[in-house]
Amino acid sequence: MEFTINQVAGMLGGEVKGNGNEKINMLAKIQDAKKGQIAFLSNPKYEQYIYTTQASAVIVKKDFAPKKEISATLILVEDPYSSFTALLEEYHKMISFQKSGVEQPSFIGDNSTVGTGIYRGAFSYIGGNVKIGNNVKIYPHTYIGDDVVIGDNTVLHASVKLYSGTRIGSNCVIHSGTVIGSDGFGFAPQGDGTYKTIPQLGNVIVEDNVAIGANTVIDCATMFGDSTVVRQGVKLDNLIQVAHNVEIGKNTVIAAQTGISGSTRIGDNCIIAGQVGVAGHLVITNNTSIGAQAGILKSITEEGGQILGSPAFDVKEYFRAYAVFKKLPDLNSRLRELENKIRHLESRPVQEINTK
Amino acid sequence: MEFTINQVAGMLGGEVKGNGNEKINMLAKIQDAKKGQIAFLSNPKYEQYIYTTQASAVIVKKDFAPKKEISATLILVEDPYSSFTALLEEYHKMISFQKSGVEQPSFIGDNSTVGTGIYRGAFSYIGGNVKIGNNVKIYPHTYIGDDVVIGDNTVLHASVKLYSGTRIGSNCVIHSGTVIGSDGFGFAPQGDGTYKTIPQLGNVIVEDNVAIGANTVIDCATMFGDSTVVRQGVKLDNLIQVAHNVEIGKNTVIAAQTGISGSTRIGDNCIIAGQVGVAGHLVITNNTSIGAQAGILKSITEEGGQILGSPAFDVKEYFRAYAVFKKLPDLNSRLRELENKIRHLESRPVQEINTK
Amino acid sequence: MEFTINQVAGMLGGEVKGNGNEKINMLAKIQDAKKGQIAFLSNPKYEQYIYTTQASAVIVKKDFAPKKEISATLILVEDPYSSFTALLEEYHKMISFQKSGVEQPSFIGDNSTVGTGIYRGAFSYIGGNVKIGNNVKIYPHTYIGDDVVIGDNTVLHASVKLYSGTRIGSNCVIHSGTVIGSDGFGFAPQGDGTYKTIPQLGNVIVEDNVAIGANTVIDCATMFGDSTVVRQGVKLDNLIQVAHNVEIGKNTVIAAQTGISGSTRIGDNCIIAGQVGVAGHLVITNNTSIGAQAGILKSITEEGGQILGSPAFDVKEYFRAYAVFKKLPDLNSRLRELENKIRHLESRPVQEINTK
């Protein structure tokens, strides 16, 4: 994974000023960069660093006019920031997909098939009747139960657990420790105070382009043929709870430690902050924005709402109410004072005046 | 796991109408069922589907009178819904307990014994001096430390972690990623601002018929001979925190992401919703019901209470207070208006009248 | 791990009364202790037990004068409680560090080095270019990615996951299921409602003497060369979320289920209770104390503050406001009553009097 500066300039459609044959193997910030690394200069505030940087190459704006000598080779482009970001993404892809082959020992059950370009880390477990696409990266200690299906280019980090029957789309990334397909929390109370387990026989479907953080849990649906569904483009953070039969709509983003209770449907393009709790059997409409630590007890039907509080209501109203909440002891005193004053006013000898 | 329709009817004490020799291997909803599957019809709303279903068999009420021709074989019973549920449970049991034998590689330490009918998945780890009962299912990547004891018929899903000395009863189910017996969070502040670790030397005892969700954590007790205890019949959801020396009483149910702080005792038959926080060293009496996101700062001594809020109090009072909270800006305005009016009233020339 | 009572007395600088050659192998509470175990008597309330205990040895105060016969051997010391605690710590250290050697199968990549006295449990995975110090204990199913560095005497419990490039100091303890170095939650919204992944290329640095509980997650920093940093002496409980680019200052303690959002800096010697949420890009100054379930939306600049609520403010003010909150329906009634009274006062025929 080493390129010459000329090769990088080629990818970016940029012009080289200096020694284009030097090799670079890493990206870095201009103030930290060392030999063999490439940096960028976009914000003029950082211009000072270009005269002292040890970077082998710096990406600069086409019309950049140096005020002093620069030892680094320059790559001249239209927009240094987007060029650098593009390089970052390429680099990231290379890092993510550099692993390939099968490390031993690893386990694969009967009738399971895997595509080309796959990585199967040591101690990874693939059950029976599993179908895995091309370029899938399965890190060590990952558990894939029976009858699981996984699309192309999906990355399962170390110790992801997929219960039997789970379906994962293409281009998904799932981080370490996340559990998909565990039993929904369903128990029927009995006359004697004990609970009977309601069998959980559905599965989980995760569509394409979904990212899921670390140590998150998504439970399976209760009934045969039913699924807990995470639609395409959804991004879930760490330590999130998604209960049985939940559906999360397209491109919805949910931050860490939020919990969605059973059978609730979240719409498309919602933004849900951290530590939010959503009760069961609700419908949250598209484009809803829910603030951190909010508690949602009823369905939301009007699109574009922004809510906060537990139970949650309009965020601006919440902050207005909370501002008064903070002054409640003062409010209480003012109220008491008024009560005294009124008692006093009421006792004024108005009657007597009248009779005078 | 294939039965003839006659065999299934036999289990249910039902009567067969049609070809009882056909084989079925799956349960399904009547609107989704395919050949080889069995469905049920209980709610008349769904009657339409029985005339078009591809199910091989449908369980119906004894007195069901078809209005058109039905291609599926019928099984006539008293109560189709409970018959179907009974089948579901049988099926679930079969699924759960179908795994058996030892996959390789797996690890077992010295002086450890396992019962009959056991499943030990690949990459499962059993330490030394471990005692495991009959029909226990240990999925891949499960870690069982030294000196652990596990009763009969217990299922440990992939990557459950039991620290040394943990005791798990019979008929328990523990889901993936759950950690039992990790160190309690005990640190003694030192004069220089650092903390000294208080050794955590107790263990965790989980009694019979307990279900624990995924990625939950139960810490061990601090002292030798002491235990964090989860009593029989308790059901814990995903991502729950149970701190050192906690005791959770019989048949108590706790939803996802709730945390119980150290040395607190939760009574029997309590229902605790999601994202609740309970402070340390409290006693929560039997039959207490705690609403989602509540924060419990003091012991609860009166049975049958329902509480909400942080700090929590009676749920009905909480909602009444919260209803006013939402109108606090309005309350504040009304108060200000009264203050103005009173100022006005006070300035009325009452004295002058008197002196006139 | 068996010692004679004489040996233990030697460690404690105590005097033996009785048979010093008897062997002990465990510590226990005086009321529970059995043969082969050692207990202590400090609080006079427990004196009764010393006459009936089956402990082989009891640590007592130098000037302890028994009122009856005692069968246990006594060890006379200045301060029985600290002597027992010292023994506990020694025992704990022995337990923690008794594991050594390499169990098979285990995996180690190219160019990786490990120190002396190491334990590598079965199914543990060490990637390439990893550097591990002396006396490090790596429990089964632990995943250590490429280029990781770990100091001396650190313990990684079963199934800890360290992503590539993570740095862990010396004398750290990390509990099961914890994930360090997973991708930060960074996505750039696109015009069509989808999100583009922002590559996460930094790492995580955990300094010396840090303890981290079970199933906690610490994300890596976004940019190359940047790090999410956990400073020396920090203690993190279970199920905590630490987002990308966060820095947690020296000796700060954080309880379970708390979440710190991206790029926030927590100061030194802070105490953060459970289920707290801290928003992103904030600075929390040293010695700040944050109560359970608090939500922090702005930076805290004054040292020594104690805050509560969501959004949080001074804890005493919070409780005062909350006390009034609970009586809001009553406040509302009082306000309504005042409004009625004022309406009545205003309607008094003052004008008429004046004109009289």
Strand order of the largest sheet of chain A: 8-11-14-17-20-25-28-31-34-37-39-40
CATH architecture descriptor of the largest domain in chain A: 3 Solenoid
Radius of gyration of chain A: 30 Å
Helix content of chain A: 10-25%
**Alpha carbon gap, first and last residue of chain A:** 105 Å
Question: Quick one: which chains have the greatest interface?
Answer: A-C, 64 and 63 residues
Number of strands of chain A: 40
CATH topology of the largest domain in chain A: UDP N-Acetylglucosamine Acyltransferase, domain 1
User: Class of the largest domain in chain A in CATH?
Assistant: Mainly Beta
Helix tally of chain A equals 6
Task: State the domain count of chain A.
Answer: 3
Mean pLDDT of chain A: 93
Report the sheet with the most strands of chain A, covering strand number, pairing sense and barrel closure: 12 strands, mixed
The global form of chain A is flat
CATH homology superfamily name of the largest domain in chain A: Hexapeptide repeat proteins
Can you describe what's shown?
The structure is a homotrimer of 356-residue chains. In chain A, the strands form six sheets. In chain A, strands 8-11-14-17-20-25-28-31-34-37-39-40 form a twelve-stranded mixed β-sheet. Chain A has a ten-stranded parallel β-sheet with strand order 9-12-15-18-21-26-29-32-35-38, with no helix packed on it. Chain A is of the alpha/beta class and 356 residues long. Chain A contains six helices and 40 strands. The longest helix of chain A is centred in the last third of the chain and has 19 residues. Helix content of chain A is 19%, strand content 28%. Chain A is flat. Chain A has three domains: 94 residues, 3-Layer(aba) Sandwich (Udp-n-acetylmuramoylalanyl-d-glutamate--2,6- Diaminopimelate Ligase, Chain: A, domain 1), CATH 3.40.1390; 217 residues, UDP N-Acetylglucosamine Acyltransferase, domain 1 (3 Solenoid); 31 residues. Chains A and C meet through strand 4, helix 3, helix 4, helix 5 and helix 6 of A and helix 4 and helix 5 of C.
